[in-house]
Amino acid sequence: MTTLQDCRALDAQDPLAPLRGHFSLPDGVIYLDGNSLGVLPKAAAARVADVVTREWGTDLIRSWNTASWFDLPQRLGNQLAPFIGAGKDEVVCTDSTSVNLYKVLSAALNIAREDSPARNRVVSERSNFPTDLYIAEGLCKERGLELVLVEPEEIAAALTADVAVLMLTHVNYRTGAMHDMAGITAAAHAAGILTVWDLAHSAGAVPVDLNGAGADFSIGCGYKYLNGGPGAPAFAWVHPRHANRFWQPLSGWWGHAAPFQFTPDYRPAPGITRYLCGTQPIISLSALQCGLDVFDAATPLGGMAALRAKSLALTDLFIALVEERCAGHGLGLATPRAHAQRGSQVCLTRDEGQGLNGQGSGAYAIVQALIARGVIGDFRKGDGGQGPHKDILRFGFTPLYLGYEDVWNAVEHLRQVLDTGEWRRPEFNQIHAVT
Amino acid sequence: MTTLQDCRALDAQDPLAPLRGHFSLPDGVIYLDGNSLGVLPKAAAARVADVVTREWGTDLIRSWNTASWFDLPQRLGNQLAPFIGAGKDEVVCTDSTSVNLYKVLSAALNIAREDSPARNRVVSERSNFPTDLYIAEGLCKERGLELVLVEPEEIAAALTADVAVLMLTHVNYRTGAMHDMAGITAAAHAAGILTVWDLAHSAGAVPVDLNGAGADFSIGCGYKYLNGGPGAPAFAWVHPRHANRFWQPLSGWWGHAAPFQFTPDYRPAPGITRYLCGTQPIISLSALQCGLDVFDAATPLGGMAALRAKSLALTDLFIALVEERCAGHGLGLATPRAHAQRGSQVCLTRDEGQGLNGQGSGAYAIVQALIARGVIGDFRKGDGGQGPHKDILRFGFTPLYLGYEDVWNAVEHLRQVLDTGEWRRPEFNQIHAVT
């Protein structure tokens, strides 16, 4: 049995503990939702204020030159690159995850179908993040292709000769289950299939090696584990072997080879720059830089490897403490126990029929009761007993700013919420539009 | 002849003069580039700081509910709507101009070709803003359609039975020439053609009446005359008669009918909300709100009609003073003299062969010399004598914060730069990457 004293001892020995000082965390909050919206880097307030008052207010259009606004997407991409196993000039930070997915999936389909015109399927996972499926559905409909959705264990069998692209999210948003990117990419390539990897719950959360895995295309989110701020611009990566083969359909002026020549015809810039489209939100992009700066600060402390070791220790501890201290309350574990299959989150389930008055699972109310105590996680609705997906209590663990005592305290709050029946209070059972 | 004293008298009588107090303008600057990047509303620094430190830093994911982040694109759209002749729930502020053009042009093509499958052309203007042409080029290539580019005087004749969509920018970025939106839309409709209007240089600059003109689709820019900040999110409008007919191809989760049900299949939200895609950059969006707030403050002072009257007075004055005081320096006028054909900018030309050592036009160096004096306009390159487009000195006039004395002083600086030959200095003749 791990004790509070054990947790404090682990914090005292933690070489990554100083990183917490880079963040502004509200008092009284244990934040287990960095997989939804990362916290505020302390440097961001001053950085954003400087962009607003000096770069915009005083320097105005001169900042295109003096503050290098124009290449900010590439500079941030280069700063992010080492943390996802990408090389220099292979990443841009721009637009939203959904828009970037449209770009790379379009390009992947163009390449795959130029090489093998008979390939007319896109394969993805049924429980992939919905916006990924919506974008793929739209593209497939537009081009007369078929979108095939499978369960994780069916992926290998789905890699048939009629498949053009396999599109997966590396770490599942509902369960925290992580795919073997290198193994699946190799299997896809062996079947002549290109891969598109969504790193929304991976970038900054787990070690990623896009080039090592030989992946083809990737996109990801700036406002989750990268702590870039609400709705921060996302990113896109394309393997150099594909980068110059196609232009993507959102062919705007920031992706032009000579944007300031204002020629009427489109000529794509070489490499990843052609994955830019329109003018980017400079203030939000600048905040993202502060999130990336903390990963630079983590590098001399061991970087992503050290962060991963701590993340696994935190999630192992959380699972163990929940099982020890919250037993008998109908909680299950949706996240894999095997380290190789786990992202940086733990998702608990609760069966239907255990909610207030026997309605629903009560998971939503438990999450609300925890939030009222300052333990912020989130709730993801299941299929209400109609299918395999149970209601989920989702907890993200960001080793940049969380410690072992935080985990202890979070579980203690959960235990009290369950043991006392506090979650049954009416105010915790009122559903809000957005959670 | 207008005198400096006349200008001061005009400022003293100007009912819009108090609006200047809403902006933070750098000392010693006469800013004639609000058509490129609008200036900083004073309220924006505090608003952005509050979004960063409180909404993001303290309230974290709770701000999705407490700060209504989720409907910010619609709220800003409703705030903008009256200034472009749009109705409630017809506009969203989101993504970039280029991305929004892709959405509305895609939808317009779907609708036009569903109704008339044989229509296989998109008509636009050869000197439309390049990114508009790039997006149209990409879409046409993807769908096997033809993009036909014409001169302004050829538009009427180009509205033939094989045209699906006419895509125009209302006010030309190079010349400041303004199209007759109502007249051209009526002519297009008479020929069975849908219209897409880019309001990049119109929204906040000239009165626009999208519903009055019966236009079909429109997009525009947040960071020019709307003063939303560098790279501020753009906007999209769709006439209600079209809004529910098609989903646009960037079918992300923010455009879903029930985004928090996380269903695997896409179901577009009713109306303009389906033109949203991914999560938006909240910090940059919030700054845009401060730009729109100033237009609300202008409403009791006469609103867009009063702003338009002052804009025409300022541009009339600039043209008159340049012609009176800068004669003999080879300057021409690219902007129409007729009020009905003029946006809120004045573009001067200079012939080739008048530059340093007889090379080029010297327009770039004149603009640089003006900038060094604090008179900020910009330069747009012509075709170097190869075609009809001369080099352009471009000056935008924003009646929200410019006065008549500013115009006098700007012309006086221009006169001195030309009369003294100051623009010939080497430092003004070195070309930067971005101007």
TrEMBL record, chains A, B:
Q: Which reaction does it catalyse?
A: L-kynurenine + H2O = anthranilate + L-alanine + H(+); 3-hydroxy-L-kynurenine + H2O = 3-hydroxyanthranilate + L-alanine + H(+)
Is tRNA processing a UniProt keyword of this protein?
no
EC top class named in words = hydrolase
Pathway field:
Cofactor biosynthesis; NAD(+) biosynthesis; quinolinate from L-kynurenine: step 2/3; Amino-acid degradation; L-kynurenine degradation; L-alanine and anthranilate from L-kynurenine: step 1/1
Which GO cellular component terms are attached? cytoplasm
* Co-factor requirement: pyridoxal 5'-phosphate
Residues with the N6-(pyridoxal phosphate)lysine modification: 224
- Cross-referenced InterPro entries, in alphabetical order? Kynureninase, PyrdxlP-dep_Trfase, PyrdxlP-dep_Trfase_major, PyrdxlP-dep_Trfase_small
The EC code for this enzyme is 3.7.1.3
Residues annotated as binding pyridoxal 5'-phosphate are 97-98, 129-132, 169, 198, 201, 223, 253, 279
Supply one GO molecular-function term: pyridoxal phosphate binding
Q: Which domain of life is it from?
A: Bacteria
Q: Name one GO biological process term.
A: L-kynurenine catabolic process
Per UniProt, which keywords does this protein have? Hydrolase, Pyridine nucleotide biosynthesis, Pyridoxal phosphate
Keyword RNA-binding present in the record's keywords: the answer is: no
Offer one Pfam family short name for this entry.
Answer: KYNU_C
NCBIfam families linked to this entry: kynureninase
Similarity comment text for this entry? Belongs to the kynureninase family.
Q: How does it assemble?
A: Homodimer.
Q: What does this protein do?
A: Catalyzes the cleavage of L-kynurenine (L-Kyn) and L-3-hydroxykynurenine (L-3OHKyn) into anthranilic acid (AA) and 3-hydroxyanthranilic acid (3-OHAA), respectively.
UniProt xrefs under HAMAP family? Kynureninase (MF_01970)
What is the name attached to this protein's record? Kynureninase
Identify the species of origin.
Answer: Acidovorax soli
Q: Which gene encodes it?
A: kynU
